[in-house]
Amino acid sequence: MEGEVKAAVKTLREGSGAGSDFLGWVDLPQIYDREEFSRIKKAAERIQRSCDVFVAIGIGGSYLGARAAIEFVKSPFYNALKKDTPAIYFAGNNISSAYLNEILSLCEEKDICINVISKSGTTTEPAIAFRVFRELLERKYGEEGARERIFITTDKAKGKLKELADEKGYETFVVPDDIGGRYSVLTAVGLLPIAVAGIDIDAMMRGASDARIAFRDPDVKKNDAYRYAAARNLLFREGKTTEILVTYDPALAMMNEWWKQLYGESEGKDLTGIFPASVVFSTDLHSLGQYIQQGVRNLFETVIDIQQDNSPFVIPHDPRNIDEMNFISGKTVHEVNRNAFLATVLSHTDGGVPNLILELDSRTAYDFGYLVYFFELACGVSGYILGVNPFDQPGVEGYKNNMYALLGKPGAENEARRNELLKRIQ
Ligand code: PA5
């Protein structure tokens, strides 16, 4: 694959390929707006002081990265844990009225701040949630008070959200023009909610910056990001059309979701692309494990293997050995988990499912930044090897246009589409 990888890397680094207007993430860990970065930290401190609940409103690339980071670095139980930072809820990422009502009830009698995140400023899901929360905040704190509690992350100059933010005087942060949603977690899009959770965003940027340097190595054999891009394309050509991202730690479940969007939207187009799926083991060994072991042989797995155990737990000894499990007493849970990992890799490879292993030190902010950059770079290179534009998502518009038409959005085109869709529905 060496020649193909080199050609893809050249295309990416020279900005000569499709979607080259969206390469701002490549040097972002080095070249980012320091003034805005310090404003993010100050806003996060203000939010931490003035609210119990912080609601991050956004969908797709406008929320997955922040949620992944908070669960990865802190915990999937972040909101329930004892802490001196606000609870963080994510709204505007679906159209469920039950979900919206439940978040509203969680906010009752709490001091609230919100961050609306939308690059386009026109996405329906966050727009609905923002309407609801803006109205709630203005009722609760008055227009002046609400202004101090509403933070907007959007395009620097255009869009309805920017217009509203300017009119109302909300503090705004920028989604850079040259960075698409799914590549934007290390911009204000992800950094503000992540900083509100008390995570060290300097360390996160350092991790990404070190990855940027490490993965500049032109030697394809030594560059892990390039090797990953090459390996998954080779497997794809051999009929392995589904890649399953595997974690053995539930704290990475949302990282899996972030990764699925990154690879799914970047590669799934032009009737090609590896289908990105994910599992959390050992949990899913008791559900999807059977299929992976013996179902259709179009799968390969990529395992994120976290080396360190930052929260050791020793399995107790039972003098009566009622469950006959004393052979594991005295071992740590991590040790057992690592054996589950080794056992599964051996078993799945026996079953014809190739495994790629990504070793990561631990679950710190630094590691998160490093891993994000690794996956982004590998994704750009992999997309170019595959022959697609890894930076657009034309297919996402399909359902939106149909939904607007069905909901009666004005305009002749919408009306014509609506009539055609209604005929099909009947
Ligand atoms: O990666 C992308 O570009 C998309 O997933 C967007 O992040 C998502 O559709 C939300 O768009 P917006 O931020 O414009 O509301």
Task: Describe this structure in a few short sentences.
With 426 residues, the chain is an alpha/beta fold. 50% of the residues lie in helices and 12% in strands. The structure holds 5-phosphoarabinonic acid.
Question: What's the SSE blueprint?
Answer:
Blueprint: H1 2-14, H2 24-27, H3 34-50, E1 53-57, H4 64-74, E2 87-91, H5 97-107, E3 112-117, H6 124-147, E4 150-154, H7 160-168, E5 171-174, H8 188-196, H9 201-214, H10 224-237, E6 242-247, H11 253-267, E7 275-280, H12 289-294, E8 299-306, H13 333-350, E9 355-360, H14 365-386, H15 397-406, H16 412-425
Parallel strand pairs: 1-2, 1-3, 3-4, 4-5, 6-7, 6-8, 8-9
This protein binds 5-phosphoarabinonic acid.
Structure description:
This protein is an alpha/beta fold and 426 residues long. The protein has helices at 2-14, 24-27, 34-50, 64-74, 97-107, 124-147, 160-168, 188-196, 201-214, 224-237, 253-267, 289-294, 333-350, 365-386, 397-406, 412-425; strands at 53-57, 87-91, 112-117, 150-154, 171-174, 242-247, 275-280, 299-306, 355-360. The chain contains 16 helices and nine strands. The strands form two sheets. It has a five-stranded parallel sheet, with helices on both faces. Strands 7-6-8-9 form a four-stranded parallel sheet, with helices on both faces. Helix 7 (160-168) links the parallel strand 4 and strand 5 (171-174). Helix 4 packs parallel to helix 8, helix 10 (224-237) packs across helix 14 and helix 15 (397-406) packs across helix 16 (412-425). The longest helix has 24 residues, at 124-147. 41% of the residues are buried. The site of 5-phosphoarabinonic acid has 15 residues, from loops.
